[in-house]
Each structure stands twice: as C-alpha cells, then as structure tokens.
Predict the structure.
Amino acid sequence: MTTTSSSNPYAIIELDRSGPLRARGARPEPAVDKYIAVAGTIGAGKSSLVDFLSTRYGLTPYFEPNEANPYLEDFYEDMDRWAFNSQAYFLAAKFKLHKELEAHSAKVVQDRTIWEDAEIFAKNLHATGAMTDRDWRTYWMMYEAVREQIRPPDLMIYLRCPVRAVRQRIALRGRQMEQDIPVAYLKRLQALYEDWIARYALSPLVIIPTDKLDYLTNLVDRHDIMTTLEKYLD
C-alpha cells in the first residue's frame, strides 16, 4: 500500500488495492486499453474531472446516463414509488455502457460506475424503506449477475466531498430536480460512499478531496493531481 499522509485533509491518497480479476471462463478479453473510473456523490465534481482528463490526455469519456432515465424526475418527487424502476434502469443502462467501453480499443474514463449504483444508491433506498425487501432481493440478484460479467477499472478515482460543499454545488448548478433533495439523503449517501471506498479492493485507488483541491484554476493543485494520475495512464 502506498499513501500520502491521511491525517492531512488536503492530501491526495493513493492505495494499492489491485486484486485478481474475476474468472471469466470463455469470455473474450475486453479490447479497452485502459479503463479509468471516477466515483463520487452528487455534486462531487465527477463530470468536471472526466472532462478535464479526456481533454488533457485524450481519454474517451463515458458519462452517466442521467438525462436518459425516464424515471428520474418521478423518482425525485416520489422515491418510494419509483425507487426500483429508476435503479433497474440505471443498472441496465450502465451494463450496456460498460460493454460499450470494454469494446472500445483505446483509453477510456467513466463518470460514475455500476458499483456505485448498487453499493450506494440502491442500498440506501433499501435501508430507508424506499425499496421493499422483495424489490431489493430482485435488484441485487440482477446486480450480482451483471457484476460477474464486467471488467474492474485499472484505476478508481474517488472524489471525496463533504455534504456542505455538495449542497453548495447543487445550488450553483441549478438542476431543478436536485434542489429539494433532503440533507439527510445526502448524508446517508456520504456515509455509504465512505463505507464502500473503505472496502473497495478491485483496483488501485486514488482519493482526491475535491473541496480542498482545485485542479481547474489552481496550478499547484493541478500539478499535484496530474503527477499522481499520470503514472496510471501509461
């Protein structure tokens, strides 16, 4: 394991968590040359980092299919009614997207992963009762089947962002459907993200505190982040 000082809230943390790839039987090996994943809660800065990496290093970006989800607006208005529908759509759409990026013979970067959909968002909905036990069992069975068919990333980048900063960013970007998200919901997501990332063991992991480091306008922060990430992009 290699890390910077985790006691420093401004530090970028590197963890060597590369584990063995899952057995894949007769499945053909993915064509993708390098797969970088960017994880983080709502408003953590994932899309901005994906844009930056794709522009700076020529990575092909794959963005989360939020706008295409026909249940999302209904979900934000009535989570209990639309939780399973929305999460099932994301699972299917993300699996399709994942197969597309695996087939892409170049370096790719993905905005939010299929692991987050299940381990954070669906798990939260079940824990709060928005997703029934019956729906949860069905969803998790689908997720386990999908999980066995996909390649883990070559690097997972986790954007750590406290709820206070998340709320500020949600207000600034002005997406109407996000404005009434309860603070308690954001806090639960944050706790689940921290629990998941503490257990994450599929690939090397880089943790960036995005409320402390500004790679877009601060040249020193940008240099630090680029120096950290470039070793994984070769």
Summary: Confidence is low (pLDDT under 50) at residues 21-26. The first strand starts at residue 13 and ends at 15.
